[in-house]
C-alpha cells in the first residue's frame, strides 16, 4: 500500500496542502488531473524524492521511475548505445524487456536517436521507462506534444508492457484521448486532492457523462477549506 498522510510542501508559499492519498499496488493506471498550477508536477517531484523537505509522511513507496516532461535520453547516441548506457546507470533497467519492446515497435537499434522524429523519440522515452523494474512509474504530460496516431501507439505500449503489479500515475490534460487507459483518477485543485476514485464507479455514478466531463464537473463544484 502506497500511503501519503498530511503531505504539505512549498517554496515561498504553499503548493501542496495537507494531502492524503492511499493506493494499492494492483497494476493500475491512475490519471492525475487538475488545472495548471494545482500542484500535479510538484506532487510527482515529491514522490520521486526530487523535493525532499516536506511535512507529512510517505510510506510504502518502493522503487520509483519518473518520466519528466522533457527529454532524458542522450540524442547523440544510437539506441544500442542507449541500451548499454541505461544498463550501466540504472540497477532497475531490464535490457531484455527493452529489446522486446523495441522489436514490437520495429525500431532500428543502430540508428542515432537524433535522426528520429519527435513522435518516435516520445516512443523511445516510453520504451526506456517501461523497461525499468519499478514499483511506481510517474509520467508528467507524456503525450502532450504528439499527434493522435502516435498518442494511440504510446497508449498501446503502456497497456501491453506495463508491470502487472506496479502503479502508473500519469499527469495529463488529455482526458478524453486517454480515458480508456485509466483505472483510477485523482483530481487536484489548488494544491489539494479533491477526489480519488475508480473510473468505473465514477462513470456509473455520473452516467452518461464522460470522464472528461466528470472531471470538469467535480473541479467546478469542489469547495476548499
List the helices and strands and how they pair.
Layout: E1 2-10, E2 14-23, E3 29-33, H1 40-47, E4 55-59, E5 64-67, H2 79-89, H3 95-105, H4 118-130, E6 136-140, H5 148-161, E7 167-171, H6 175-178, E8 184-189, E9 192-198, H7 199-205, H8 211-221
Parallel strand pairs: 3-7, 3-8, 5-6, 6-7
Antiparallel strand pairs: 1-2, 1-4, 8-9
Task: Report on the architecture of this protein.
- It contains eight helices and nine strands.
- With 225 residues, it is α/β, with parallel strands linked by helices.
- Strand 1 (2-10) and strand 2 (14-23) form a beta hairpin.
- Helix 3 packs antiparallel against helix 4 (118-130) and helix 4 runs parallel beside helix 5.
- The mean pLDDT is 89.
| Approximate helicity band | 25-40%
Average pLDDT value? 89
Strand elements, count: 9
Please count the helical segments. 8
Instruction: Output the strand order for the largest sheet.
Output: 5-6-7-3-8-9
Radius of gyration: 18 Å
- Describe the largest sheet: 6 strands, mixed
Low-confidence runs of at least 5 consecutive residues: none
Report the structural category.
alpha/beta
Shape: globular
Strand content: 15-25%
N→C terminal distance? 28 Å
Tell me the series of helices and strands, N- to C-terminal.
EEEHEEHHHEHEHEEHH
